[in-house]
Specification:
The chain is an all-alpha fold and 527 residues long. The protein has a domain of 354 residues: Na+/H+ antiporter like fold, CATH 1.20.1530. It has 22 helices and 2 strands.
């Protein structure tokens, strides 16, 4: 009897070895072939996206923007691969990895945003941008989290613990208006509205990531009392530290290119290589220090454009400008294809349809509380001729698309939260991303025409005048405004501090970090 049991156990072990994953793996040649097929499919989808985007722009088809078309291509190809017998070794090349997104795809997109940023409207509206990005994102996160929690308590939707609801509110508050901004450029909308939408979307990513990580720490350690108080402190530390590291790297690069003597004909290759490496150095330095690489590389891009760029030779200037525009376009298009394919391939929890429906409703309410509440605060301290118009507030509210940042954080929540909870959040986020990118992105042109903010790109609807010498928008103060004298004095003091910084930049920083004083000012005013 014992001999038969031993023989049976030996037979079972042999069967397990035959069906083990090690024996089921394809040979190395097969893996290389699968990798080639996967990369080939990605290149084909990129080519198709660029060609389709060109055709859509040429025929002025605004109801299907380029980002929406890329997402649709990824969804269609992913759906076909999901229902077919595609080999798993090929499908693994399309899995969305949040590390790959944060470390390789996001940096060139953010750097190009800062590198090509027009400083006049951005710095003129910097106070409003910071208000929307910090106060507004915090408000939207808390409102969304509280409403989702109350919806669970009243059995309207799938119930999640309060901290997990706040995590969902934080990740879903990250806006990604790539589609809206591209249509803004096509239609020629107001530059201040463009600066508000763009600036809020970039800075609020750092706020959303900081809030999500803080809530994730609270959830993992189950100590909500002290950590909630540290959210604002942690964000300020992250923002100030990231800004300092980004600006510092930008200044170092400016000094290097000024004194290293690289702007000669036979060293242009070295010059371009070093310039391309500095943005990644800034991003990875911030991430390695536990800061926000997004904020760091954004300000590195702004500083390098203002100071470092003028220290390059003319040929290198043309190359780096074209290179970063090219690499950011490739990354943006690939992100939406990558995301669409993964949405079609991932397993989703569609059983909680109520959670998806009410989440969409709640983020609309939270976005309204964010935009209209912050606009009210900004208008309280602005003179009458610099008030944010209601039509701009409506456009800003409508522009709150969710994209790759929210998707990446939701995918990370699958690993951070218990089984079922993270999957529900991921499914809801997926539905929100697809809905906002396709529907809201496609109807942006109609929205702009309905709000009558089309074609006023060069006008100054906020009562601002350009100061060609400083490169900033200087507000004109009306003595007859209804604002209190204390608020007017603060505004004048702020204006004086802005003018003082401009004079400091023109008289000291620009001569110290660059070799072409007058040309730099002119270029800075044009960008």
């Amino acid at each position: 009897m014992m001999e038969e049991i031993v023989k049976l156990q030996h037979h079972v072990v042999m069967l397990q070895q035959q069906i083990s994953p090690e024996n089921s793996n394809p040979p190395p040649g097969k893996e290389q072939q699968a990798a080639g097929v996967g990369i080939l499919l990605q290149i084909m989808m990129l080519v198709l996206s660029f060609v389709l985007g060109h055709v859509l722009r040429r025929h002025k088809v605004y109801y299907l923007p380029e980002a929406s078309a890329s997402l649709l291509i990824g969804l269609i190809v992913g759906g076909l691969a999901n229902i077919s017998n595609t080999e798993s070794s090929i499908r693994t090349w399309f899995n969305f990895h949040e590390e790959f997104f944060f470390l390789f795809l996001l940096p060139p997109i953010i750097f190009q945003s800062g590198f090509s940023l027009a400083p006049k409207p951005f710095f003129s509206n910097f106070g409003a941008i910071v208000t929307f990005a910090i106060v507004g994102t915090f408000t939207a996160s808390v409102v969304t989290g509280v409403l989702v929690y109350l919806g669970g308590l009243t059995f309207l939707m799938y119930r999640l613990p309060f901290v997990e609801c706040l995590m969902f509110g934080a990740l879903i508050s990250a806006t990604d208006p790539v589609t809206v901004l591209s249509i803004f450029q096509e239609f020629g909308t107001d530059m201040n509205l463009y600066a508000l939408v763009f600036g809020e979307s970039v800075l609020n990513d750092a706020m959303a990531i900081s809030l999500y990580r803080t809530m994730a720490s609270v959830q993992s350690h189950d100590s909500s009392g002290k950590n909630f108080f540290m959210v604002v402190i942690r964000f300020l530390e992250t923002f100030v530290g990231s800004l300092s590291s980004g600006v510092g790297v930008g200044f170092i690069s400016a000094l290097l290119f000024k004194y290293a003597g690289l702007d000669v004909e036979n060293l242009q290759n070295l010059e371009c290589c070093l310039f391309v490496l500095f943005p990644y150095f800034s991003y990875m330095l911030a991430e390695g220090l536990g800061l926000s690489g997004i904020v760091s590389i954004l300000f590195t891009g702004m500083v390098m454009k203002h100071y470092t760029f003028s220290n390059l030779s003319e040929n290198s200037q043309r190359f780096v400008a074209a290179f970063f525009h090219l690499i950011s376009s490739l990354a943006e298009t690939f992100v939406f294809i990558y995301m669409g394919f993964d949405i079609a391939m991932e397993k989703h929890s569609w059983s909680h349809v109520g959670f998806i429906f009410f989440s969409i409703l709640f983020i609309v309410i939270a976005r309204a509380a964010n935009v209209f509440g912050c606009a009210y605060l900004v208008n309280l301290v602005r003179p009458a001729n610099r008030q944010i118009p209601v039509k701009h507030q409506k456009a800003l509210w409508y522009s709150g698309l969710r994209g790759a940042m929210a998707f990446a954080l939701a995918l990370q929540s699958v690993h951070d939260l218990p089984e079922g909870h993270g999957q529900t959040i991921f499914t809801a986020t997926t539905a929100i991303v697809v809905l906002t990118v396709l529907l809201i992105g496609g109807s942006t042109g109609t929205m702009l025409e309905a709000l009558q903010v089309v074609g006023d790109a060069n006008d100054g609807p906020l009562g601002e005048s350009f100061d060609g010498n400083t490169g900033y928008i200087a507000p004109s103060y009306d003595e007859g405004t209804s604002s209190g004298s204390r608020l007017k004095m603060r505004l004048k003091e702020f204006h004086k501090s802005t003018a003082s910084f401009t004079a400091l930049d023109r008289n000291y920083l620009t001569p110290f970090f660059t070799t072409q004083n007058g040309d730099v000012e002119e270029e800075f005013g044009k960008t």
